[in-house]
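Lab notes, practical 5.
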Amino acid sequence: MSTTTATKTYDGFSEEERAAMKAHAEDLKATSRRGTKGDAESEVLAKIAEMQEADRVIAERVHAIVRSAAPGLISKLWYGMPAYAHADGKIVCFFQPAPKFKARYATLGFNDAARLDDGTMWPTSYALTTLTEADEARLAALITQAVS
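Output from the prediction step:
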């Protein structure tokens, strides 16, 4: 007696995920080529300049806030996104534009290098649709806390 089983097809990573991995490999190659020379800051600013207007405006403000609130962080590209790291290379926070993974809003995300711990549970990413003065002050406080 023969039996047939339905098999599920796994397509693997989405197109956006594959693009992010490819961007990360390119980021690593650029860092390797650049070494300590070159200017990762201008690469981040160029990436921000390529964004759609709504995300670009927010990314420019986030960049300015990070540079002001945590001047010791190093700007770099991470999976093709603007990111900010400690000198050891550990990413503290990053800006993810909405189209990156077909989201309806941009995101400011924090990695585990960020010191945002608050009890047993705390947010590690924030949806950004626009930035008010109050939002900017809150982001500056979060970034300051993240590097404290």
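Observations recorded by the TA: Residues 15-31+39-146 form a domain with the Aspartate Aminotransferase, domain 1 fold (CATH 3.90.1150.200). The beta strands are 74-78, 81-85, 91-96, 106-110, 125-128.
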